[in-house]
Amino acid sequence: MKVNPETDSQGTSDFCAPGRKLCAAVGIRRWTAGTGTPMLTMGFVVLRDGATTGDEGKVFMERFPLVQTAAFRIARWAKAQGWPTEFDADDDDDLQRIMARGPVVAVLKEDTYKGKTRTEVDPDGWAPYTGDRDPAWDGMISKGELEFEAIQRRMANKAGSGNAGSGSNGNPDHPNAPGNGYGGAPSQHDDIPF
Questions:
Q1: Whether the model pTM is above 0.90
Q2: Residue 42's pLDDT is what?
Q3: Environment class of 40 (CB within 10 Å of its CB; exposed 0-12, middle 13-18, buried 19+)
Q4: Domain residues for 121?
Q5: Angle at 95 between CA 190 and CA 194, to 5 degrees
Q6: Is 65 among the domain residues?
Q7: Are 160 and 178 in contact (CB under 8 A)?
Q8: Alpha-carbon distance 183 to 194, whole Å?
């Protein structure tokens, strides 16, 4: 195996590194945390990485608890998207209209909760994007949508195998059943402190 210190030192990862990213929303999924909190996970594809190289085209997930005490989290995203009025976070059509407004800036940070470290958007890290649109982004967004769906299928399969706490449990009519666009819950140990 040959190793080049100039090109191989960064390594590769499916996860985005912390820092400032220009991104576009590529999908949504609803689920319920182990605490009973209704949740919304949105997938974003990185269009331009302001912190490191190599994250362009990667998909990251951001979770929004759908409770009034945490409404500020999704409201800050919508405001950065340029959405001026009240919307219903329980309505996928409302969310898709906001998502379709174009790219947004997100600042990712590492956070540790109950011994697990993950990368998430800093709640104050959403900002509007006011630059020009690059035609190459359309292809990245299409690939990001496919990757988001693939991630959801893997999570649904994991949930169906008994590894997640609020998946479909084999019931095809369950809201988290594979094929309904949302998939299963991320983990049986996903506790949200709200």
A1: no
A2: 96
A3: buried
A4: 15-149
A5: 30
A6: yes
A7: yes
A8: 23
Structurally, the chain folds into a number of domains equal to 1
Query: Which secondary structure element, helix H or strand E, spans residue 6, and what is its range?
Result: helix 5-8
Q: Among residues 56, 63, 77, 82, which one has the least CA distance to residue 144?
A: 56
- pLDDT band at residue 15 using 50, 70 and 90 as cut-offs: confident
In a domain, 177, yes or no: no
In a domain, 2, yes or no: no
Query: What CATH number does residue 40 fall under?
Result: 2.40.50.140
Q: pLDDT tens digits, residue range 86-114?
A: 999 999 999 999 999 999 999 999 988 88
The mean pLDDT of the chain is 80
User: How far is Cα 47 from Cα 168, in angstroms, rounded to an integer?
Assistant: 33
Domain assignment present for residue 32? The answer is yes
